[in-house]
Amino acid sequence: MANVLYDALLAPHQTNDKPLLLLKDQEALRYQDLIKLAAQYAAQLSAIGAKAGDRVAVQVHKSAEAIALYAGCLQRGCIFLPLNTAYTASEVEYFVTDAKPVILVCDDANRDALQPIADANSCQLATLNADGSGSFHQQASALAPTKHIEPRGADDLAAILYTSGTTGRSKGAMLTHRNLLSNTVTLVDYWQISDSDVLLHGLPIYHTHGLFVATNTTLLAGASCIFLPSFNTDDFVNYLPQSTMMMGVPTFYTRLLADGRLTKELVSHMRLFISGSAPLLAETHESFESLTGQRILERYGMTETNMNTSNPYSGERRAGTVGFALPGVETRIVDPESGAMTGTDDIGVLQVRGENVFNGYWQMPEKTALEFTPDGFFITGDLAKQDADGYIHIVGRDKDLIISGGFNIYPKEIELVLDEQAGVVESAVVAAPHPDFGEGVVAILVAHNGQTIDIEAVKIEVATTLAKFKQPKKYIVLEKLPRNTMGKVQKNVLRDQVADSFS
Ligand code: AMP
Prior knowledge:
Elements: H1 4-10, E1 19-23, E2 29-30, H2 31-47, E3 55-59, H3 64-76, E4 79-82, H4 89-99, E5 103-106, H5 111-120, E6 124-127, H6 135-141, E7 157-162, E8 172-176, H7 177-190, E9 198-201, H8 208-221, E10 224-227, H9 233-239, E11 245-248, H10 250-259, E12 272-275, H11 282-292, E13 297-302, E14 306-310, E15 324-325, E16 329-334, E17 348-354, H12 365-370, E18 378-386, E19 392-397, E20 402-404, E21 407-409, H13 411-419, E22 424-434, E23 438-447, H14 455-465, E24 474-478, H15 491-498
Parallel strand pairs: 1-10, 3-4, 3-5, 5-6, 9-10, 9-11, 11-12, 12-13, 23-24
Antiparallel strand pairs: 1-2, 7-8, 13-14, 14-15, 16-17, 17-18, 18-19, 20-21, 22-23
Bound molecules: adenosine monophosphate.
């Protein structure tokens, strides 16, 4: 039997001496170096007793070696389980207890804090640091690269990615070889990625965006990747002229725009700018185009589903939308109460079905069953609408829906109005408990640098645009919105902050 992902992403590169990862202040990692390192890491995994199907938990900084560890896991048939580097030891304890990995690979700096957790869970501990050093790498370097490629079928698990868990405990999304490969093949084709591409990569690699969307497509296409430890504008301005593609979260784009060094000339070598993981404001899209002449391609996906929709490569990339269902992915928007399909421009819950959709939550069959419809669609929890031309608009999470005085209120609708007001750079709308209405609308505004927002003027404008029940009952101005590392506004944090607004 073959190994589905290894055969597609790694095997073709056995003797490829092209640079895969171009690293800052370090020699590039060539394709064949990755293959060799992965084979040593696979040998090391065997040496510690890791078998096919065992989980390998990895909380390490971004490095070429971390990618090799992912590749080594594929070769050994293990399930790669990346963890956000920001997680504390007690958070990691939950994942280790839940997933029962055979080994936890961490940074040397966290070794002491994590050792007791590993011990308590019969899990081995090894280290891998940002500079590639550490006990895992050291022991693997002494081993001959193994030629054994563990057979893995399309339905075998390749990875478990825990969801960010903004409500309740985070859940382990089980991703099969089929899920990952089908999406990679689709994206390479849809975005026309080829071996002449050079991807500018500043995303973290514990998340689906930086790990699968960026890395798997690069490997499949045989492209190269400028692999930076994280995003910063100096590096991006420096490397943009050598790149052909960039994948970013919206914050990358707003920071580049604010930097002032972005010009048509700087990006003249660029073929494609992609944005995802959080909504890109239409205003950002438009400012970016007027400054660079390039239209950002926005796409939409999730940990559980890989990528679901994308704006077209050749057709109109419409600001404020996430485009159309990708080939092989079915999407439908249904009314949350009746379950009937919604009409044009009507808001409902977005559901998706296709080979890209995960295999359920790790050891949570009941929870998994609740998230799927009887005919096999995954209920994303995102609220969306489709316009007359078929473009899908994401209008928020269903848990963000506000019900005030019995009326449903979609925060996005109010945010779009607020964003238009003088002096407002962006906004977030959340609910706070209200004695009369159940929930009351609270608007949080962020002012343009150095400007003050005339709240009374905003209220007047809002009153002419929005029905009374939708109008915010309270306004707050913050310096910036709380965001996680993927650029998502943390509405749970805001809700906590404004909880006493009406009490
Ligand atoms: P994650 O599982 O961390 O990738 O988060 C997935 C969620 O991010 C989705 O369910 C959406 O709520 C949000 N998301 C991803 N891409 C977009 C986008 N282009 N526009 C709006 N929301 C997005």
